[in-house]
Amino acid sequence: MAPAVVFYTSGYRWNPKKNAIERNGTLIVDTVPSGASIKLNGKTIPETTPITLQNMAPGSYKIELELKDHHPWSKTLWVEPERVTFASGVYLWPVNEPEYLGQSDATDLFGEANASSAFLIAKSNTNLTSIRLLDGKTSKSDQQIDIKENIEIFEVEWNPINPSQALVHGHTSSTVSVWLINFEDISANKLPPGNYHWQGRELIGYTDEYKLTISRDQTVSRENKAASVKDELNDYKLLELPQSTGLILTKGENAEEGSILPVGSWSFWSISNETIILRDQNKWLWIDTAQNPASISQAYGDWLNAVSVKKNIKYAFKHNNEAWIWQENNPELIYRQSDPLVGVAWHAQGRDLAVAGKNEVIMFNLDSRDGRYKTTLAQFDNLQAITILQDAIYIIGQKQNQQGLWKLDLTAKKQNAIRPLSNLGL
């Protein structure tokens, strides 16, 4: 009996399906919030999350998680011998009804993950575009900047150091214009056509003739730039060379070699670690400079929604009726439907992505094992835009004949306990 006891306590079991002895595995299940009940292959276990289940026979397990007043979650995962299988960091989204914040003439929302505020875009007439600052803590939009032009805004770039400043890109008539928005002094300044980037506390721009430097107090200085330089960011340059069909990406002041890019009017969008993102309207390039030669992948879509996870940045974007994520060079399709999508927005932890269609808001868990689990969080008569701020989804849309701004909390609402009169001495 001694060898059998040693084998058993070491996690070895007889597998009748394989007609062999093999070592068991471990399953770790954890949810946010905790306390969810667990079913394994249809059988409820007495423990709740978080839990570490050891000595589990290898094989597939359907894991079902349930918590009162929350949407359920389920997935089939494979437990392997001598390995740990994780179902951790699973968000169970509360069953909440959207809260109506009031009527609004806003037609678009622009926000980014981990931010505390967003832009509400409204047009009162054909010659006036209003930008309102939506505060994620108060859910109010008391500050407003009016621009006396009809702008179809397609992208907003916030100053990473000063969130009250942003670059707004939009179509005016048949041209693309860039505006510097500053909510510290409630101002909007139209910039000369060119490529602009935040660098520290300054805004650097490259026009056809000049390099512009705009300081925090909006003082502008300019200097001549080399005719071959189309754009520049950090140590990298995009060069236009004679008899070249594409731009050349170089690094350093005296670069003797560079990478020839696909044909396009590319400009820098971001540089993070060894990853460079370039854009040409709705075309995007991901360049991984860690490889030699640098690897390049291309995608098509609206402006990129970025989220930073453990110093790594990944992106989400929509393209017509498709939602995509972009990480580790290769774009990956998350969701496709027949009608065009309204928007995508990251949850702050980067594990889940909100996708809005014309009538519903869906949250996708991005764990690809056994398919990505989706949860329908809200239904609307008509949706126009979404963003996520401070653990809430803000929505422009119509529901039950009420058109305006809505808020959908992503955390469970606390119930106010009512004490019996007898406990109050009455």
Provide a descriptive summary of the structure in words.
- The protein has 426 residues and is mostly beta strands.
- The chain has a domain at 2-91: Immunoglobulin-like (Sandwich).
- Helices cover 2% and strands 57% of the residues.
- The protein has one helix and 41 strands.
- The strands form eleven sheets. A four-stranded antiparallel sheet has the order 5-4-7-8, with no helix packed on it.
- Strand 31 and strand 32 form a beta hairpin.
- The chain is globular and about 70 Å long.
- The relative contact order is 0.11.
Number of β-strand runs: 41
Tell me the major beta sheet. 4 strands, antiparallel
Radius of gyration (CA) equals 26 Å
Low-confidence stretches: 2-11, 417-426
The CATH topology annotation of the domain at 2-91 reads as: Immunoglobulin-like
Number of helices: 1
Please supply descriptive tags for the structure shown above.
426 residues, mainly beta, Immunoglobulin-like, 4-stranded antiparallel β-sheet, 1 helix
Sum this structure up briefly.
The protein has 426 residues and is mainly β. It has a domain at 2-91: Immunoglobulin-like, CATH 2.60.40.
How would you summarize the topology of this molecule?
Layout: H1 2-9, E1 12-15, E2 20-23, E3 25-32, E4 37-40, E5 43-48, E6 51-56, E7 59-66, E8 73-79, E9 84-91, E10 99-102, E11 106-110, E12 117-125, E13 128-135, E14 143-147, E15 152-158, E16 165-172, E17 175-182, E18 187-191, E19 195-199, E20 202-206, E21 210-214, E22 220-224, E23 229-233, E24 236-239, E25 248-251, E26 259-260, E27 267-272, E28 275-280, E29 283-288, E30 295-300, E31 305-309, E32 312-319, E33 322-327, E34 330-336, E35 343-346, E36 352-356, E37 360-365, E38 374-379, E39 382-389, E40 392-399, E41 402-409
